[in-house]
Write a structure and sequence with these properties.
Blueprint lengths: L3 H7 L3 H12 L15 E3 L6 E4 L10 E4 L13 H13 L6 H9 L7 H14 L10 E9 L6 H4 L11 E8 L4 E6 L4 H11 L6 E4 L15 E3 L15 H17 L8 H13 L6 H7 L4
Parallel strand pairs: 4-7, 7-8
Antiparallel strand pairs: 1-2, 2-3, 4-5, 5-6
Helix pairs in contact: 2-10, 3-5, 4-5, 5-9
Bound molecules: zinc ion.
Length: 300
């Protein structure tokens, strides 16, 4: 991807941002964000990047007015798009994650009077758009669950079935294809039903291997037709041939260092957004059009 200097040169005005956004959203011509049609869409000449849709579903003759920002994370914003773009791009290229405070300093400087909460809000809106369809995972897939928050020293003990971690800890589960995508999400309980449901939702029918540790919750997958193999971390076994969870371990440690290093406290409510961010960055790491594609997702 581009360096931030090149990026800054490309996006110096809001009009440049809007033109890029329009091309990313509607490469084959403007579509109505409400009825999704491209016929009967008329440019509002007095208002750049505004249109009116006159399809029957959208009120016919009176029409439905929309702008380039309608139904994007920028809808109704008073913050210049140049700032939005810069924040989103820096988040996308920061391999280890970047906190709103760091971004705020980069963008506004140490001594600016501008409101840190504005940057924080932009970061959260971007995270809400950082999702994509990566399923199903194929080939060799690692699955593992971990706990976020609280102290980590009892991790292996806490991974025992039925124990959902100490106070303040949140269970998360992830799957990573050795040659591709990662998916991670917060779960209420790390019980067998939840772990196994996650595996079935995540991997393709023709997956060649599902590698986990010895957690009891994964037992039974073989009987359900999943090519499951495990290593016994409790017995000091971390790798047996191609059976290991090393890639997912790396992802979890990057994630934990990122949120611990950058954020003093990640509340349970926001954890899915941080999982979005770290997964999306991993999944887009080799995609030169990552930023343009990010602009086309909708917030959830
Ligand atoms: Zn319409």
């Amino acid at each position: 991807m581009k360096t931030i200097d090149t990026f800054d040169k490309q996006f110096q005005t809001d009009a440049e941002c809007k033109a890029f956004l329009a091309e990313a959203r509607w490469p084959h011509g403007v579509h109505c964000p409400r009825c999704d049609r491209k016929e009967k869409i008329y440019t509002l000449k007095a208002r750049p990047f505004h249109w009116v849709c006159k399809n029957a579903d959208c009120g016919g003759k009176n029409g439905y007015r929309f702008s380039i920002l309608t139904k994007t994370i920028f809808q109704d914003t008073k913050i210049p798009l140049v700032l939005w773009f810069k924040v989103g791009y820096l988040m996308l290229v920061a391999k280890k994650g970047v906190s709103a405070l760091q971004l705020h300093r980069v963008i506004f400087g140490e001594h600016s009077g501008s409101d840190y909460r504005t940057t924080w809000y932009m970061c959260h809106r971007w995270r809400s758009a950082m999702h994509g369809d990566v399923l199903p995972l194929t080939g060799e897939v690692e699955v593992d669950e971990t706990y976020v928050g609280g102290k980590d020293k009892n991790r292996h003990k806490s991974k025992r079935i039925g124990i959902t971690g100490g106070a303040g800890k949140v269970a998360v589960i992830g799957a990573i294809a050795r040659k591709g995508m990662v998916i991670a999400k917060a779960i209420e309980r790390a019980d067998a039903a939840t772990l196994q449901r996650f595996v079935h939702e995540t991997v393709a029918d023709d997956v060649s291997l599902v590698a986990t540790d010895e957690a009891a919750g994964y037992r039974g997958l073989k009987k359900q037709g999943i090519p499951h193999q495990s290593v016994s971390h409790n017995k000091g076994e971390y790798v047996r041939g191609n059976v290991h969870t090393a890639n997912l371990d790396s992802f979890w440690s990057l994630f934990k260092r990122g949120i611990i290093g950058s954020f003093h406290h990640v509340s349970k409510a926001y954890l899915p957004l941080y999982l979005n961010e770290f997964s999306y960055r991993h999944n887009m790491r080799k995609n030169p059009n990552a930023f343009a594609e990010l602009l086309t997702t909708r917030s959830r």
